[in-house]
Model the fold of this input.
Amino acid sequence: MIIRVSSHRTKECIDITHQVRDVVRESGIDRGLCHVMALHATAAIIVNENDDPNIGVDLITALDAAIPDHAGWLHDRVDNNAQAHIKASILGPSETIVVADGDLLLGTWQGVMLVELDGPRADRRVSVEVIEGS
Done:
């Protein structure tokens, strides 16, 4: 299933746990795996704390410090977003989460996040596939 997410800033972490959880529950699968994948080269999927939004701000700040915008990246000659591609590659496009008792098996403070690195975008697509286990 494809869920759609809108971003409102150039860089931000967006909690998509509820949308992913809805797909898992609608699947009717009690036990298995849930694979969540950003269908974009300048966005990523992570599992991290979702109670304090400052974690997302800190993540973006750390990424910006490590991989600055417009630092002579060759791809900037094409469409000026090389840093977004590099950051998305480091974070990764997907996460796989265990499904137990028909729900995502996450820790108390964990959530599933779309990390927007080249926004704002009105229509980010995220694939959510639930695979039944044995």
User: Anything to note?
Assistant: The two ends are 22 Å apart (CA to CA). The longest helix spans residues 54-66. The domain at 2-132 is CATH 2.60.120.460 (Jelly Rolls).
